[in-house]
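Internal QA ticket QA-208
Title: Verify multi-chain structure generation after dependency bump
Assignee: T.L.

Test input:
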Amino acid sequence: MSQSGRTAPALSPVLLLGFALRPAPKPALQAAASLAMAALLRSHRGVFERLEGLANLDFLIDPVDLPFRFHLSAALPSPRLHVLGEDQKPEPPVAAMIRGPLPALIDLLEGRIDGDALFFSRALAVEGDMAAVVALRNAVDGADISLAEDLLQPLGPIGAPARALLRAGGALYRRAERDLETLRAALIAPVQRRCDAQEAQLHDLDETVASMPARRRERRP
Amino acid sequence: MSLRALELVCPAGTPASLRAAVDAGADAIYLGFRDETNARNFPGLNFSRDELAEGIAYAGSRGAKVLVAINTYPRAGNPGPWTKAVDDAAALGAWAVILADIGLLDYARQHHPDLRRHLSVQASAANAQAIRFYCDEFGVKRVVLPRVLTVDEIARINDAVEVETEVFAFGGMCVMAEGRCLLSSYATGESPNMNGVCSPAEHVHYEERNGQLVSRLGGFTINKFRDGEPAGYPTLCKGRFRACKRDSYLFEEPVSLDVSNILPSLMDAGVTALKIEGRQRGKAYVAQVVSAFRRAVDAAARGERPDTADLSSITEGGRQSTGAYEKAWR
Ligand code: SF4
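Actual output:
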C-alpha cells in the first residue's frame, strides 16, 4: 500500500489546513493523536473489545486531504494511533487501509454517514483484509462516538467554554466549506462546460450506434 | 380515508442501529445473535444475549417489537446453537422468531408454542401450497416472501392463504430464489444458507488498478468500476462479465430495491408488512431509510400518494429498482 492509490483530493478547508500543518512538528501532531486515542479508549472501550477476535488489529487510516496518515493499533490493553509521514511505511504491516477525505472519515467514526454508501459513491477506498475492515466499521458504528464530547468529557462543566468554541469553529468550518466550493466551481467552470459538451456528443454517438442495424454495427472496423 | 398502515420491519446489526430504527419510527426491529445462526453473520455485527435483552426493553418502552432471525440451516450433527438461539429468544421476550429450517420450526412449535413463528425468506416459500404447508404443520403466523414475485402474484397468494405476508421494501437485491442460490458457495466454498453470509468479507478483495476499482470474490474478478463510477458489492449475481465479446451485467446490475412508489399496490395486494434490508449497514443508513419509509407508509395509509423518498445517495450503484415486483427483467 503506497501513496500511489491516492487521487487528487477535493479543495476543502481540511486540505488548506493540511498545507498549514505541513511544517508542524511531528511530536505536536502525535500528542494530539494520542490525546484523541486516550479519549476514545476512556469512553468507548467496547469498540476495542468487539475487535478482540481479529488476528491483525493494525489499520492504516489515510485522510487524502492531509499530508500525513495514521497507523491505528487497536489491540487492548493499549491501543495506539501513530502519525506517519506521507512515505513512511506502517510497522508492523497493517491488515487493511481505509482512505478518504478527513471530514468523511470523522462522519464515519461518529456514525453520521453509512460506510457502504461512502464506498458506493467512491468517496471511500478500502484495501486489504475486508473482514478486518468490516469488523472495525461495525464496532465503531455500534458505539455513539462524538470526538469533541469524548475529548472534553474529563473537564465536566468547566468544559462549557471549549464546547462553545468548538460549536463556533464548526459553523466557521461549514461556511469555509461552502465558500471554497463556490471558488472551486468558478475555477473549473470553463473545463466543466467543455466536458458537458463532449458528454452530450458522446451520448449522441451512442444513440446513433444503438439505432444502427446489428449487422452494420458488426462490420464496423 | 384511512387504510391499515403497512407494518415497518427494520434491520439492526448493532444496539445503536436498533435505537436509530426505533427512534425513526420502526414498528418492529429484526436482528440476529452474534454467530452463524442468522443470515447476516458479519464480523463485529449482531447481538449478544445481554444486548438483545436491552434492545427488547428499549423497543418495548417505545411501542416497537423485536424479532430474532435464526434463519440459517443447522449444521448436520450439531443443531445445538440453533435450538439454544430459539430458547434464548423466547426467554428474553422476543415478539417472534424468523426461521427457515423445518426441524427448527418444529422445535419452536413444540417447546415454545406461544412464541410467534415467522417463515424466513431463506425458506423460499413462493407459492400458496408451500405456504399452507408451513402454516398447517408449524403454525407459522407470517411468511416473508422471496424477492422473485410480481405484485399480481403476491395478490394471488394472499387471496389463497390466511397467513400474513411480509415483502422486501428497500435495500439489497437478492435476485435468485433465496436459500437456493449457490453462486457464493461456488466462489468461496462457504454457503450463505449455512454460514450466514453471501460473499463473505474474508473472500472479498478491492484494488485500485489504472484508475479503476477492481473487485474480486475468491478467485473471480466480479467488476471493474471506472474512475467516478458508482460501485457495488462483489456479489456474483451483480458482476459484470464478458460474454459474446461484450462486458455486461448478466443477471442484475448493482442496484438497490425501493418500493416506495408502489406502496398502494402492495397494500391492495394484501401485504401486511414491509421489510427493510440492511442489518450489515450503518446506523446512519437505518435512520435515513426508516424515517423515509415511515413518512411514505403513513402517507399511503392516509390514501395519499407516498412521497418517493430520495434515497439514491445510500443505494448500491447509486440506483434504485422495483425489481421483480414490476417484472422488468424476469
Ligand atoms: S449471489 Fe446474489 S442471488 Fe445469490 S445469494 Fe448472493 S445476493 Fe442472493
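Spot checks passed. Chain B touches chain A through 40 residues (CB under 8 Å).
Status: verified.
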